[in-house]
Amino acid sequence: MTRFASQQSSADLSATFFKLEDSEDELRPSSSTARRRSKRAKVEIKAEVEVKSEETANGGGAAVSASASASAAIETKGNTNSRGKAQKARSLSASPQKKVKAIKQALDKPHPAPARWREAYDAIKEMRTRFPAPVDTMGCDTAKWKETDPRNKRLSTLISLMLSSQTKDEVTDAAVSKLRAALGGTLSLDALLTAEEHVIAESINKVGFWRRKTQYIKQAAQRLRDDFDSDVPKTVDELCSLPGVGPKMAFLCLHAAWDINVGIGVDVHVHRITNRLGWHKPPTKNPEETRLNLQSWLPTEFHKEINHMLVGFGQAICLPVGTRCDLCTLNTQKLCPSAQTVVKSKTKKTTVVKPESGPKIEIAIEDTATLNLPKEEPVSPCLSATSTLTPVPDDA
């Protein structure tokens, strides 16, 4: 856009001159050819201008201060990405406090007790005495058996519970034993704090989500040291504030570590079996709904033992797939509405012998045989088999 600047003549005040003025659009480079400047370049230019102005006004000493601040600003802008990566890396090893809502302890309206629940409960308890399960010897409450110090016992229980999610008891038990050996023979808080993450990871890499659980263990150990006097907390809300710990783990940890009974630990087995028994109307959708329903009507003295009992029952008889209703007495007593009739298929078993398997057996058949014939009258020696007898006439 062309602009003109007016200017009066110095010789004749009545005369006015107009001068062509360059517009900003003409001075500005076209958008198609201009290169986009980075934020760092802008900061550097601005910093140089500030430094020069400081030198002119205040001398060299102030210029040094301005230069330092300018270089700091440039460094801040230039390393934004690297700083973000560093913060992300630190966040993995830090011990942030998990923001958790208070765990609900009761329903607004209690769930009614199901009919004949005590008969079913006692029948399951009796079956558990006859059918052992992995939880009996490798459950999370057994992790403390190999420790002597009370704090280490409680810590072993907590670590075992943190590893147990999405993992079978056999794998969890082996991982805890391997971790204990890697830490020098005892599972203590100091050993966890000083251990490198790769040491923990190599010990627990058979459990589900082991990478995430490695971070949880390190973060939880720092929280125990900083916020809980290097010991396992004694409330559900405090336990749930630890990374990787949920309500089920919290209730079970209080049972096994502190012998505190404030609720029911509900896992997939308890959730599945109680719904199969028809104890929830309508059926519950998740373990937390199951826990609140059970706690509303099940007597408190059963809250601590029901998890261990139903977990073993679910491992041995009431399986997730292929349930053994043929072994369950609830089926014969008509106490389980989900009972299934097991039909055994009658199939003929055939034995196939491979040509190379076993030694070769040769059977020889004798050419002669001994026959036991009835006794006959002896034949005269003068008669042979080829002799011909001539009949004698009657009148001879």
How does this model look, in words?
It is a single chain. This protein has 396 residues and is mainly alpha-helical. Among the domains are: 38-78; 117-332, Endonuclease III, domain 1, CATH 1.10.340. It has helices at residues 24-27, 39-58, 60-78, 80-93, 117-130, 135-138, 150-164, 169-182, 189-194, 197-204, 210-227, 236-240, 247-258, 268-276, 287-297, 306-316, 329-332, and strands spanning 3-8, 16-21. The chain has a two-stranded antiparallel sheet. A hairpin with a 7-residue loop joins strand 1 and strand 2 (16-21). Helix 5 (117-130) packs across helix 16 (306-316) and helix 7 packs across helix 8 (169-182). The longest helix has 20 residues, at 39-58. The chain is elongated and about 135 Å long. Residues 163-316 form the HhH-GPD domain. One of its GO terms (molecular function) is oxidized pyrimidine nucleobase lesion DNA N-glycosylase activity. Its main location: nucleus.
List keywords for this structure.
396 residues; mainly alpha; Endonuclease III, domain 1; two-stranded antiparallel sheet; elongated; DNA binding; iron-sulfur; Endonuclease III homolog; iron
Helices and strands in order, then pairings?
Elements: E1 3-8, E2 16-21, H1 24-27, H2 39-58, H3 60-78, H4 80-93, H5 117-130, H6 135-138, H7 150-164, H8 169-182, H9 189-194, H10 197-204, H11 210-227, H12 236-240, H13 247-258, H14 268-276, H15 287-297, H16 306-316, H17 329-332
Helix pairs in contact: 2-3, 5-16, 7-8, 7-13, 8-10, 10-11, 14-16
How would you summarize what this structure contains?
The chain is built from 17 helices and 2 strands. The protein is mainly alpha-helical and 396 residues long.
